[in-house]
């Protein structure tokens, strides 16, 4: 495993992704998602919105890193807010 | 009637899951780990956080390579997709001629990428290459090693030659799958050739074209061997595409950290564009079937 050069933050990142996916699976099992249309131009299911949220969050982080000098956790906070908005009203 | 609920078939997915874990997920995780560290060897690595990302995002060479990459990918898509459909429409439908046409059209696809580069490099030479010689004999000042426009022209021509057959074959199979009843109905309505294409053939081709466009986009976005052999990324850096910039950094300079950060950015762009393509085409189709 040493060749993979694990670090605390990256391990935490992948564990949270895995937890989110597991959580979404359990949620889907007990209350199946219904496709609906929110403010996004396409109708989406819960999983679609999660994917869109994660991908846009990645780009939010890149934009913050590339354009501003702010700490990366600012981008994470913005992404979290965006994620909630997207999951609820997207 | 009781429907039997049995989800055991899901276990058959396990082998794929394991293969993908080893071939994609673990390497990707490793790249993420590398991208936040400065690595000197197995036992010495330093945490750098987002520094590599910052450096890569602000690197003008990479920004230029990214723009070139988009220009290239959209240029070849804009040429190959219509051309491929056109070739598929012209190909004979049955008999020995159909088989012969299939073999002929598929030929460029069988040639290894390096060899394609070599073929075109020789073809573009002005002393012995047919293309280069013909162009310079007819008065065009053609030189892919000195003129960026010539280099771009040759690379795009090479990619069109190499990959249009893929779109053509996909479209051909899509066209063959259309039941005759549609054409008969069109004949009864006295539909024009254009109307048949626009309202029967093109809609029925959507699925194969989605695959074709996605494959061609991803492949062209990762293009490496052909321009590397043909122009070596030159003249200057006018044909240095993303993967070549990445390889130079990761292999030649052995900057694992920056190269990893760059790979992640590269991956995210491919993922985003592919998703947008896929969703756009699928949504179009859904709207269309909702209208009917």
Automatic annotation (TrEMBL), chain A:
Annotated Pfam families? DUF2160 (PF09928)
Ranges annotated as spanning the membrane: 12-30, 50-66, 72-89
InterPro entries (alphabetical): DUF2160_TM
Source domain of life is Bacteria
| Keywords recorded for this protein, A-Z | Membrane, Transmembrane, Transmembrane helix
Q: Does the keyword Transmembrane helix apply?
A: yes
Specify the protein name.
DUF2160 domain-containing protein
- Species this chain originates from: Marinobacter vulgaris
From TrEMBL, chain B:
Main location as per UniProt? membrane
Q: Which UniProt keywords apply?
A: Membrane, Transmembrane, Transmembrane helix, Transport
Which parts pass through the membrane? 9-32, 70-90, 102-123, 151-175, 196-218, 259-281
Cellular component GO terms, alphabetical: plasma membrane
* Membrane topology (UniProt): Multi-pass membrane protein
Q: Which residues form the signal peptide?
A: none
**What InterPro entries would the database entry show?**
MetI-like, MetI-like_sf, Sugar_ABC_transporter
Q: Where in the cell is it found?
A: Cell membrane
Give me any GO biological process, just one. transmembrane transport
Which Pfam families does the UniProt entry name for this protein? BPD_transp_1
Which part of the chain is the ABC transmembrane type-1 domain? 66-277
> What family is it from?
Belongs to the binding-protein-dependent transport system permease family.
What is the protein name stated in its UniProt record?
A: ABC transporter permease
Species this protein is from:
Marinobacter vulgaris
């Amino acid at each position: 495993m040493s060749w993979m050069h694990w670090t605390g933050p990256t391990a935490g990142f992948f564990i949270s992704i895995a937890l989110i996916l597991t959580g979404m699976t359990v949620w889907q099992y007990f209350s199946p998602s219904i496709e609906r249309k929110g403010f996004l131009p396409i109708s989406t299911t819960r999983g679609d919105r999660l994917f869109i949220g994660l991908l846009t969050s990645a780009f939010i982080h890149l934009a913050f890193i590339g354009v501003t000098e702010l700490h990366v956790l600012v981008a994470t906070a913005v992404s979290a807010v965006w994620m909630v908005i997207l999951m609820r009203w997207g | 009637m009781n429907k039997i609920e049995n989800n055991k078939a899901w276990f058959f997915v396990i082998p794929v899951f394991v293969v993908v874990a080893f071939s994609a997920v673990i390497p990707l995780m490793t790249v993420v780990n590398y991208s936040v560290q400065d690595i000197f060897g197995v036992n010495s690595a330093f945490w750098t956080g987002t520094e590599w990302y910052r450096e890569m995002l602000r690197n003008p060479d990479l920004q230029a390579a990214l723009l070139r990459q988009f220009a290239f990918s959209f240029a070849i898509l804009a040429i190959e997709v219509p051309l491929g459909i056109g070739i598929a429409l012209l190909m004979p439908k049955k008999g020995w001629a159909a088989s012969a046409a299939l073999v002929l059209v598929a030929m460029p696809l069988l040639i290894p990428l390096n060899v394609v580069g070599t073929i075109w490099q020789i073809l573009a030479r002005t002393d012995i290459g047919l293309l280069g010689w013909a162009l310079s004999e007819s008065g065009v000042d053609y030189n892919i090693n000195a003129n960026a426009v010539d280099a771009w022209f040759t690379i795009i021509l090479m990619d069109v030659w190499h990959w249009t057959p893929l779109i053509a074959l996909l479209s051909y199979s899509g066209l063959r799958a259309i039941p005759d009843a549609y054409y008969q109905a069109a004949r009864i309505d006295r539909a024009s050739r254009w109307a048949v294409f626009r309202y029967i053939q093109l809609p029925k081709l959507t699925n194969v074209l989605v695959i074709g466009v996605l494959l061609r986009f991803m492949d062209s976005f990762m293009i490496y061997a052909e321009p590397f052999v043909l122009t070596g990324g030159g003249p200057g850096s006018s044909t240095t595409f993303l993967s070549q910039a990445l390889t130079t950094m990761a292999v030649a300079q052995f900057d694992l950290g920056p190269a990893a950060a760059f790979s992640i950015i590269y991956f995210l762009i491919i993922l985003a564009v592919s998703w947008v393509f896929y969703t756009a085409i699928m949504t179009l189709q859904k709207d269309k079937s909702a209208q009917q």
